[in-house]
Amino acid sequence: MRVRPTGRLGAALALTIAAVIALSGCVAQEPEPTATPTAEASNTPEPDATPTGPILRPGEAAAGNRQFFDMLNNESFDANGRGDGRSIVDKLVENGFEKQDMEVTPDATAIGLAADSIVVSVRIKGECLIGQFTADNYSSSIEPLLGTGSCLVGKTRPIDW
Fold first, then answer.
1. What is the residue range of the signal peptide feature (predicted)?
2. For residues 138 and 147, is the Cβ–Cβ distance under 8 A?
3. Which class for 76: exposed (0-12), middle (13-18), buried (19 or more C-beta within 10 A)?
C-alpha cells in the first residue's frame, strides 16, 4: 500500500521538492575567460580637441571676439569680484589678447580709496572691447576707437608689468 503525505507535512514536502527543482537550475558556473585587450601603440594621431566654447579670433573684429573677452572677464569676476587691474589684464594676456592693445583704469582713487569700478579695454581693428568690473557685476560693450587712438577717456594706469 502506498502512503500519501497529507496536511501540513504534505504541503511542506511539496514546497521542498518544488524549491529543489527550481534551484537546480541555479548552479554557479565559472565565467568563461574573455580576452583582455592589450594596449598597443597606434600610429594614428588623436584628433585635435575641438573647443566647445568661445575662442579668440585674432583676424576678426571686436564683435567676433566679444564672447571670448566676456567669458574670460566673467571668470575673473566670479573668482575675484571687482578684483584688480593687473589680474584682469594678466588673464586676458594669458589667453591671447595683446598687452600693447590694452588700457586699464587705476584700482584706487587719487586719495587712495578703492575705485568704484575698474575698466579694461582692448583695441581690435579700430574698435574697442570694453569691460567694466564693479562690486556687483561685470558688463561690456563695443565702442568706436576715440580720435586719440585710445579706447578710454581719462587717466589710465600704465601696463608695464
1. 1-28
2. no
3. buried
Is the pLDDT at 32 greater than 60? The verdict is no
Backbone angles phi, psi at 142, to 5 degrees: -115, 125
Q: Edge to edge, what strands does the sheet with 127-134 contain?
A: 102-104, 117-124, 127-134, 138-144
In the chain, what are the domain boundaries? 62-144
Average model confidence (pLDDT) across the chain? 81
pLDDT of residue 52: 82
Residue 61: CB atoms within 10 A of its CB come to 14
Separation CA 89–CA 137 (nearest Å): 17
Other Cβ atoms closer than 10 A to 83: 17
Contact 45, 96 (CB under 8 A): no
Exposed, middle or buried, 71 (CB in 10 Å: 0-12/13-18/19+)?
middle
What are the DSSP E strand ranges found in the chain? 102-104, 117-124, 127-134, 138-144
- Among 46, 47, 43, 69, CA closest to 56: 69
Angstrom distance (rounded) from CA 102 to CA 126: 13
CB atoms within 10 A of CB 72: 20
